[in-house]
């Protein structure tokens, strides 16, 4: 009973604006205060440390650093040029370039906001010059950014794998299907809306232009090949793959593109460290909170309740998606995984749902949350880049939310979209 009361207390703290890590810490300490047994507070530090003392978790700061190095290395421009060479000759081509370039940059960064910032900074001005409304441009950039958390390497997939013990390599592969489906559906929508509104210009198709763009972007495109190829060939683990990605990004930024200097490295490292510190602080607090949930047998109670009230695995997947959609509206994706995965994952296993499939759907749903106010991480990045009020962007963003929701529904109805590559 204490556990359920504290869970309610946690959501009250979040609602009044207390940072999630502090809210979790306060609730955890309050649990033992209410029970009158403060001796357990002495194990808080050890539980927090054990929660972050993981070789697999080391992949997260390394992937974040690799993405920051590639962002600083101006890789985004080469990927935009490559996307433009393929789809620039289609009506709405520049909008499609934004989406395709975000998918490509997602394959080297693993972060939604980083993808939005990197590609948005390059395409915002061309979109405006070609006559796209600024509200549509901002919505397109915001909706395309979350592809960065689906196309591997994905930081959220790594967090889910570490939290639930699901194989990270298979999770990374499972994100490709939903990511490509989201991108395809968005490009279809962009084609029809731009054709109807007569937005944008059309460029001439050129094989020579494609060859040149591919040659310039080949070093960036090798990043996912190295990561996934190394993992699946058994050369290195996901954590070692992240370290290789950092080394590779550093070399091409310093010596090939020469867009990173020794003087700029400290600021890049500082930014990555700040991002990672927030994730680790939340992880440590949730590890202690998870100890309390286990002590109160809340996961087992929820699993039993779900089995009694939900008739099928598909029904539970729908409930999961609704929970994650609401959670994604009010909290960052990493926090949602760390908080909700320990509760929902055991229930999914009771229904016999494949853990890799469940993890991919989990992250694919959070991708929609990244563009849904009030949190909407990628929306705020796009709004700042395009210099437009958010209220003007939301209307253009609703069709993208609908399109991505259709993609999520297709992934639930046809699991092979998610599991085709992991099962190879």
Short summary:
Helix content is 77%, strand content 0%. By secondary structure, it is mainly alpha-helical.
Reconstruct the topology from this structure.
Blueprint: H1 2-15, H2 20-35, H3 44-52, H4 59-72, H5 75-87, H6 93-109, H7 112-129, H8 134-144, H9 155-164, H10 168-174, H11 176-197, H12 207-232, H13 238-256, H14 265-295, H15 298-309, H16 313-330, H17 333-350, H18 355-369, H19 377-386, H20 390-413, H21 416-419
The SSE order reads: HHHHHHHHHHHHHHHHHHHHH
Summarize model confidence as the mean pLDDT: 83
Helix coverage percent of residues? over 70%
Residue fraction in strands? under 5%
**How would the global form be characterised?**
globular
- Rounded radius of gyration (Å): 22 Å
The biggest sheet, with number of strands, parallel, antiparallel or mixed sense and barrel status, is:
none
Number of strands: 0
> Count the helices. How many?
21
Give the termini distance in whole angstroms: 45 Å
Task: Look at the helices and sheets and give the structural class.
Answer: mainly alpha
Unreliable sequence segments: none
What does this structure look like?
With 424 residues, the chain is mainly α. The protein is 77% helix and 0% strand. The chain contains 21 helices and no strands. The model has no long low-confidence stretch (mean pLDDT 83).
């Amino acid at each position: 009973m204490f556990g359920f009361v504290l869970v309610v207390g946690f959501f009250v703290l979040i609602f009044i604006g207390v940072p999630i890590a502090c809210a979790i810490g306060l609730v955890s300490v309050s649990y033992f205060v209410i029970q009158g047994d403060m001796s357990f507070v002495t194990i808080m530090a050890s539980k927090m440390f054990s929660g972050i003392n993981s070789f697999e978790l080391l992949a997260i700061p390394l992937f974040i650093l690799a993405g920051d190095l590639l962002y600083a290395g101006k890789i985004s421009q080469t990927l935009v040029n490559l996307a433009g060479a393929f789809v620039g000759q289609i009506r709405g081509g520049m909008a499609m370039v934004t989406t395709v370039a975000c998918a490509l940059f997602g394959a080297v960064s693993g972060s939604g906001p980083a993808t939005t910032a990197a590609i948005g900074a390059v395409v915002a001005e061309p979109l405006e010059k070609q006559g796209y409304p600024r509200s549509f441009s901002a919505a397109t950039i915001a909706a395309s950014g979350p592809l960065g958390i689906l196309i591997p390497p994905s930081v959220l997939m790594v967090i889910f794998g570490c939290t639930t013990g699901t194989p990270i390599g298979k999770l990374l592969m499972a994100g490709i299907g939903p990511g490509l489906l989201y991108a395809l559906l968005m490009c279809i929508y962009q084609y029809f809306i731009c054709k109807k509104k007569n937005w944008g210009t059309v460029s001439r198709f050129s094989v020579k232009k494609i060859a040149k763009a591919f040659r310039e972007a080949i070093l960036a495109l090798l990043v996912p090949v190295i990561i996934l190829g190394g993992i699946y060939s058994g050369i290195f683990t996901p954590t070692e793959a992240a370290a290789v990605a950092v080394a590779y990004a550093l070399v091409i930024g310093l010596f090939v593109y020469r867009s990173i200097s020794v003087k700029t490295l400290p600021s890049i490292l500082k930014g990555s460290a700040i991002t990672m510190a927030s994730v680790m602080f939340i992880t440590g607090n949730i590890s202690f909170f998870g100890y309390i949930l286990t002590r109160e047998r809340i996961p087992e109670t929820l699993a039993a309740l779900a089995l009694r009230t939900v008739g099928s695995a598909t029904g539970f997947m729908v409930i999961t998606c609704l929970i994650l959609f609401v959670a994604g509206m009010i909290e960052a994706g990493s926090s949602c995984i760390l908080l909700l995965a320990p509760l929902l994952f055991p229930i999914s296993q009771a229904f016999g749902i494949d853990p890799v499939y469940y993890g991919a759907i989990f992250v694919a749903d959070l991708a929609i949350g990244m563009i849904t106010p009030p949190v909407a991480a990628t929306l705020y990045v796009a709004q700042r880049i395009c210099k437009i009020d958010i209220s003007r962007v939301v209307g253009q963003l609703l069709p993208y939310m609908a399109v991505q929701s259709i993609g999520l529904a297709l992934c639930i109805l046809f699991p092979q979209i998610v599991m085709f590559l992991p099962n190879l």
